[in-house]
Write a structure and sequence with these properties.
single chain; globular; alpha+beta; Lipocalin; two-stranded antiparallel ribbon
């Protein structure tokens, strides 16, 4: 009689153990071991970053650049990094084209990564930055002007903005691999000269993905 009572219980326990093991294995297979720490890493990195605004020096056309090419943007205001020096107005932010995969899965993609700040005295300083918003340039009576661009508030950890430009979406992550990824279903991603960039910026950390 005891055997008849215990047997279903043991079977149920065995099933529960098998179910738990299966779930754990599935999560391990589908998600890297470090994935639960990504939000923590992003929050930690964001705590060391400050808002900044810059304008793109020249046009970046995905059809005319390749991975490894450099691009530059200029700070429009002075920025004092929490974990680094003051970057005066006019400091050049240097970056590289990280990926320019055209028509990948039906979409065109342009990925950018900021890597260093170039001070007016010629010194360079490693940085990481995330593009959180953009505003297109325009030309008025006083010269080039830009639409207002949203300033980073210190809390935003990710941007997924559809239609940030006509037919172009922007994806970016604090502590992500890239400063920003522009995706379109068109044949080309083209960023205009003097495009205004709202950034979260900080000194490059030893484990920062943007500077990797």
């Amino acid at each position: 009689m005891k055997i008849r009572i215990l047997l279903p219980v043991l079977i149920s326990v065995a099933c529960l153990v098998a179910f738990d093991t299966g779930v754990t294995a599935q999560q391990t297979d589908s998600q890297p071991a470090w994935s639960p720490q990504i939000p923590v890493a992003a929050k930690n990195e964001a705590a060391e970053m400050v808002p900044a605004e810059a304008v793109l020096d020249r046009q970046v056309d995905a059809r005319k650049v390749k991975a490894g090419d450099q691009f530059r943007a200029t700070l429009t205001d002075s920025v004092h990094l929490k974990n680094g020096p003051e970057l005066p107005h006019g400091t050049i932010l240097v970056g590289t084209i990280a990926a320019d995969q055209m028509q990948n899965g039906g979409n065109s993609k342009l990925a950018l990564r900021f890597t260093e700040a170039r001070l007016k005295n010629g010194k360079t300083f490693p940085i990481e930055a995330t593009i959180v918003a953009i505003a297109k340039p325009a030309y008025g009576e006083a010269g080039y002007v830009t639409d207002p661009v949203a300033t980073w508030d210190g809390r935003l950890l990710a941007t997924d903005e559809v239609g940030v430009m006509s037919g172009v979406d922007l994806h970016s992550r604090i502590a992500g691999e890239y400063s920003g990824v522009f995706v379109t279903k068109k044949t080309d991603v083209k960023l205009a000269a003097r495009l205004q960039l709202a950034l979260a910026i900080g000194a490059q950390s030893t484990n920062g993905a943007n500077g990797a």
